[in-house]
Automatic annotation (TrEMBL):
It comes from the Bacteria. SUPFAM superfamilies: Diaminopimelate epimerase-like. InterPro entries: Phenazine_PhzF-like (IPR003719). This is PhzF family phenazine biosynthesis protein. Gene3D superfamilies: Diaminopimelate Epimerase, Chain A, domain 1. The keyword Isomerase applies. NCBIfam families: PhzF_family. Keywords: Isomerase. Belongs to the PhzF family.
Length: 266
């Protein structure tokens, strides 16, 4: 059985967010235990498992971190669409409903995801201590993401953050997003973010597509109602996500590069 490692939300190897992709040679998923073991062995933020189906979707798709299964994942969906190839829209049946991936002529792939609703919440002093940050605002995102999103004062505050990842591993949310407006209007992106998912077995995620389903409506509201934006996730690897807000749907556009193509023997 083939397994690929694909760098997503980048046009060059060793950047963006790497994901494992296993295209199953069957019409049903193997046991959850086996998929969890494979994801732990791959030890990337997510490994995607996909098999063909009939009906409203073309494939069934699930995502596993090294520790848990997640309900929504952007970069591993982008990586899966890249592996499947083709020039037609691909429909995925997932825990978050039907998701589509549309390839472009220029190598870009656009994902259609549900927009995450935002609910303002009071800052949690425990979380602020773990992050070492003082936010301007805090929102809960969900239900598919179940993250907390903190707006910080500026881009430098996001880039310079050094959270206590060991402490965050015990926090009850899937992840924590920190974000700020881009410092320079000519930077090529409108906002920056970082994502910490220690509770899901991911210390800092390099580029988190699903988080942008909340970042898109948030920054649209902050930036004059604009619906076409570019986010830069300022991790060590870094990556760009084009977002297009369409009401209750958000389109995420990026590129992907296969860096490893091998055989899964177990």
């Amino acid at each position: 059985m083939r397994i690929r490692i694909v760098d997503a939300f980048t046009d060059r190897p060793f950047a963006g967010n790497p994901a494992g992709v296993v295209v199953l040679d069957r019409t049903e998923f193997p046991s959850d235990e086996w998929m969890s073991r494979v994801a732990a062995e791959v030890n990337l933020s997510e490994t995607a498992f996909v098999h063909p189906v009939a009906g409203d979707a073309d494939y069934a798709l699930r995502w596993f971190t090294p520790a848990v299964e997640v309900a929504l994942c952007g970069h591993a969906t982008l990586a899966t669409a890249h592996v499947l190839g083709g020039s037609s829209v691909v429909r995925f049946d997932t825990r978050s409903g039907i998701l589509t991936a549309t390839p472009g002529d220029d190598g870009w792939i656009t994902l259609d995801f549900p927009t995450a609703p935002l609910t303002p919440v009071e800052p949690d002093p425990r979380l602020l201590d773990m992050l070492g940050a003082t936010p301007i605002s805090v929102h809960h995102t969900g239900p598919n993401t179940d993250d907390l999103m903190l707006e910080l004062v500026d881009e430098a505050a996001v880039r310079d953050l050094t959270p206590d990842l060991s402490a965050l591993a015990g926090y009850e949310r899937r992840g924590v997003v920190v974000t700020a407006r881009a410092d320079k209007p000519d930077a090529g992106y409108d906002f920056v973010s970082r994502f910490f998912g220690a509770a899901a077995g991911v210390g800092e995620d390099p580029v988190t597509g699903s988080a942008h389903t909340a970042l898109a409506p948030f920054w649209s509201g902050r930036l004059g109602g604009r619906t076409e934006l570019v986010g830069y996730q300022a991790s060590a690897r870094g990556g760009f996500v084009r977002v297009s807000l369409r009401g209750d749907r958000t389109r995420l556009t990026g590129k992907a590069v296969t860096v490893i193509d091998g055989e899964l023997l177990a």
